[in-house]
Specification:
This protein is mostly helical. The protein has one domain. The chain is built from four helices and two strands. The chain has a two-stranded antiparallel sheet with strand order 1-2. Keywords: Signal. InterPro entries: IFI6/IFI27-like_sf (IPR038213).
Length: 93
């Protein structure tokens, strides 16, 4: 059950971590850890295949959906719930 909860919550946790580091929907937040890292390591050029670029993209995409509804997470959660119930029922018999 813990794995199911983690599977469902990971996108939200990742978004929270990225926001804390300074990755926002409008770009890197001024005077944040991400801004200092970018300035020190990349300057104005960020390689498109770097983890930094991936973090920027993920933060921008994550904040576009403000409704809190993510069909991929919901479908994954339903499938995992059904599978875990089936496993519990099988183990009980």
């Amino acid at each position: 059950m813990l794995l199911i909860a983690l599977w469902i919550l990971m996108p939200r946790v990742l978004r929270g971590i990225l926001n804390l580091l300074g990755f926002k929907s409008g770009g890197v937040e001024r005077d944040s850890y991400a801004a200092r890292y970018q300035s020190y390591n990349y300057g104005s050029f960020v390689p498109e295949d770097s983890w930094f670029a991936a973090s920027q993209s993920r933060a921008a995409i994550a904040e576009e959906d403000t409704s809190g509804y993510n069909p991929n997470v919901t479908a994954r959660g339903v499938v995992l719930l059904v599978v875990s119930i089936a496993i519990l029922l099988t183990a009980a018999n």
